[in-house]
Specification:
3 strands; 54% helix
Length: 200
């Protein structure tokens, strides 16, 4: 999980003429994509399209294939270059577990847009070629909704099945912190508008 201004990401990917700062950032992103490609080569993983190629195609607005995880990895590297350092939320064996948690939270009145499945796997804010399997997966939550999420989860913690309590508490604590950070950023005139989630 990380936090930042998604508009900066979208501007980098869609600018017709990039500023010097954007060109520098794009250079950093290309280096990150190259390291990801090198890691995949070491693991003998072939994505058909390299992450570097996927980045160039995203910048050009013309993906060459309809299905490849390379574009999601490239998008992640763009986000990582603009957003805060990542916070590790934990390890879960199956993403589908979160949909069971959705049902448990919903039974106690948590709004649908604050259920884990609605923001953990909502996808990027632009259309990318499908990754082809369950991973990698991305999701976003508007930072201004962090306080509502924390309050909703805190209110039901004591009524949740033990299976979901630790995860719900983790989200409640993190989102309480993110809500406070968002408030501070607003007072400073900064626009950290998006909480970004990444599963790989």
């Amino acid at each position: 999980m990380s936090t930042g201004d998604m508009r900066d990401v979208m501007r980098l990917l869609t600018s017709v003429e990039r500023t010097e700062k954007q060109e520098r950032v794009l250079g950093v992103v290309r280096e990150r994509c190259a390291r990801t490609d090198a890691r995949f080569r070491e693991q003998h993983l072939d994505l058909d399209v390299t992450v570097c190629q996927a980045l160039d195609e995203l910048v050009e607005g013309a993906p060459s294939v309809e299905m490849s995880p390379a574009y999601t990895y490239a998008f992640h590297e763009v986000v990582a270059s603009h957003f805060s350092d990542t916070t590790d939320l934990g390890v879960w064996r199956r993403p589908s577990w979160f949909y069971r948690m959705d049902d448990a939270l919903a039974r106690h009145g948590v709004p649908s847009d604050l259920l884990p499945g609605s923001f953990l796997f909502s996808g990027p804010p632009l259309r990318l070629p499908h990754p082809g399997d369950a991973f990698p997966s991305v999701g976003t939550l508007p930072a201004q909704r962090a306080a509502a999420l924390a309050t909703s989860y805190e209110a039901v913690l004591g009524r949740l099945d033990p299976e979901y309590q630790d995860t719900a508490r983790t989200f409640a604590d993190l989102m309480r912190y993110e809500a406070e950070e968002w408030e501070r950023a607003q007072k400073l005139g900064r626009t950290l508008d998006t909480i970004f989630f990444w599963f790989s």
